[in-house]
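Protocol step 4 of 6: structure prediction from sequence.
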Amino acid sequence: MANDPIQQTAKRIAGTDHPALERRLKHDMFEAITRVKPDLATGVDFDKDVMSGVFFEGLKSTLQGIAVVKLENAISFYDRVGWKDAYLDKPLADLLTTFQVDKITEKIKLQSVHDISYVSQKKIDKLLGDIEAARLWETLKGYQLDS
């Protein structure tokens, strides 16, 4: 697929080609879509069909829309807090307060900081309230890898 929107999103977020982020985005989009339509996963070879982008090309626009919304949220999130490789696997509890983790995961199943990127800022603000959401964004913006 010459113009792969998910690959382009990974590149946009990371600032360069980023195979690990691209794979994670494609995995997460595939999972979200097949949660809605489980039969679409039948016979799909992840590396051949999903990683090439062929799986997404053949979807109805409403199903593609699931991926589009999540990708737009991810771009917005990383524009706000900055890209860090560690976010792909960093547990929420490593950076968020117990209150923040409890409030967010009460409504949404998340494991890593990257998982938050799929949630709209508006939803995070609603779940946490303005003050606590502002703390979350500042914490994530200020996070620096241990050198």
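Step 5 (inspection) to follow. The chain has nine helices and no strands.
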